[in-house]
Amino acid sequence: MQKWIMSGILIVACAFAAVLMFTLPGKDQVAQEEKPQMPAVTVSAEQAEATVKANCISCHGTDLQGGAGPNLQKIGSELSAEQLYGIITKGKGGGMMPSFKDKLKDEEIANVAMWLAEKK
Fold it and tell me: Which of 11, 17, 51, 114 would you call most buried, defined as having the most Cβ atoms within 10 angstroms of its Cβ?
């Protein structure tokens, strides 16, 4: 009887492993999900400034001089538009920089990222 139970458990475990192998995402898919794709937009400084004013100055300051968040006045010399897009979209620092993917449209985030990337 005990052999039948052990055999049954082994068969169930193998079936479960096979199901997981075919349903879990692969490394490439996970990497793609972790790196958001920045949409192509034309930079509008006016719109970017309005978005920053409405969402960012409480942490980064009215002149992007920093405060609770880092100084962004010359962030373009450190990070590319794609890197900035990823940070704004996903957040950073275990909650220090919140994610804006549910608050802003992808195009708004891309516009702000491109605008910030020009600050060198």
Answer: 114
